[in-house]
Amino acid sequence: MNTEKRHDLVVKVAEYSHDELANVARHYDMSEEFPEKEIKHLFQMEILEKLYAQGDDFTLHDYLSTIRLICKNFPALGSILLTQESHCVFPIATFGTTKQKEKYFHRGLVGDIYGCFALNEPITGSDLEEMATIAIETPDGWEITGQKDYISNAPVADVLLIAAKVRSLDGTEDYGVFVIDKKTPGVKVGRMEQKMGIKALPVAGIKLDHVQLSKEQLLGGIIDGRKQIGYILNRNRLAVAAQSLGIAGGALDRGLTYVSYDRNIGKRLIDMQTTQFKLADIETQIYAARALLMQGLDNNDTQDDRFVAMTKLTASNLAIETTETIINLTGGYGYMRNNDIERFVRDAKITSIYGSSSDRLRKIIAQPWVERKSIRKR
Q1: Is 286:302 a contact under the CB 8 Å cutoff?
Q2: What does DSSP assign to residue 301?
Q3: Nearest-angstrom CA–CA distance, 109 and 262
Q4: Cα–Cα 20 to 30 A to 83, which of 69, 117, 144, 232?
């Protein structure tokens, strides 16, 4: 059905995911170790370098295809890579000053350093209006204090992008993003969290205790946090949508394998019409969700808040529904940890939580209706 010509690198990633990642993902899920060897191999494949290389024909479409293909077998590894791109490389490339780009951009591309973006806070989550982390301008720069929770890649990050309320010397308040080396005095990354799924993705909180920053550490050198945060979130949401499609596709593949087994009663599960209908619906929905994602890329809607929200919401719902259908179809077999189906059920859930929760996305989608003028009933 898919007749488009794929970039050679996308083909190589597909082969690597099928031949190698499928065999190691369960180990990392059990051990919760950071997959250093595998993420370094992805950097060596130059996925991010090609994405940002001028004149290269490796597009955002191709990059998201690699995320999807990685996540068909090892969703946690896909999380590490997409976090590096959307939460570190992308904001530095898009908004960074010349000095910030010189210091962090290329090193982030090749994996010499890891980065993270810290928005989420205890209790209030990612609500900007309720954000408690505050950066107060001083004659020499900024002093930032606050607490961030559940930050992807934080335990391995060398550079932290911290979202904060800012209070300028003249008393005005706004939002900003700060670029901070993890070894800066007053910065403390907490213990690694234990999670339900995507267990190889390192996650931790970050505490900032009166951290002294120079003026040059404000992302882009300007106070433009609302725009910067919005762009970072949308970039991440598109990648999570691709991840969700990979999880759905991986679960479907494993379900198809199970229902194709010969059984002693002489009839395979796939020979039953009810099974065919369930799996046909999943396949159709995967293609529809991929088409929605690709439409946004083709129309350059990557920073259209509503479209991106609809894309991620559709894909994450599909990942969760697909994995639930497959584990129900496979019964006790799918529930056991000696196969990948139960892992995909656990990994799928995060797609409706990070990159903004599904309810937060629904609020974004509904916002224009709320802002309409009231209509007087005739």
Answers
A1: no
A2: -
A3: 47
A4: 144
User: Quick one: tokens of 322?
Assistant: 């697909």
Q: Is the dihedral of CA 301, 238, 164, 221 positive or negative?
A: negative
- Which residues of 261-354 form beta strands (DSSP E)? none
Distance between CA 290 and CA 303 in Å, rounded? 18
What pLDDT tens digit does each residue of the chain (378 aa) get? 454 578 999 999 999 999 999 999 999 999 999 999 999 999 999 999 999 998 779 999 999 999 999 999 999 999 999 999 999 999 999 999 999 999 999 999 999 999 999 999 998 899 999 999 999 999 999 999 999 999 999 999 999 999 999 999 999 999 999 999 999 999 999 999 999 999 999 999 999 999 999 999 999 999 999 999 999 999 999 999 999 999 999 999 999 999 999 876 778 999 999 999 999 999 999 999 999 999 989 888 888 999 999 999 999 999 999 999 999 999 999 999 988 999 999 999 999 999 999 999 999 999 999 988 777 776
Label residues 20-39 b or e (16+ Cβ within 10 Å = b). ebbebbbebbeeeebbeebb
- The dihedrals phi and psi of 196, each to the nearest 5 degrees, come to -70, -40
CATH number of 227-368: 1.20.140.10
Cβ proximity of 251 and 285 under 8 Å? no
Q: Name which CATH class applies to 8-110.
A: mainly alpha
Q: 139: which residues sit within 8 A by CB, 6+ positions away?
A: 169
pTM of the model: 0.95
**If DSSP codes are grouped into helix, strand and coil, which group holds residue 205?**
strand
Q: Domain 115-223 class? A: mainly beta
Which residue intervals of 111-214 are DSSP H helices?
A: none
Could you tell me the residue ranges of all domains in the chain? Answer: 8-110, 115-223, 227-368
Question: For 105-138, b where at least 16 C-beta lie within 10 A, e where not — what string?
Answer: eebbbebebbbbbbbbbeeebbeeeebebbbebe
Helices H / strands E in the chain, number of each: 15, 7
**Strands 115-118, 159-167: pairing kind:** parallel
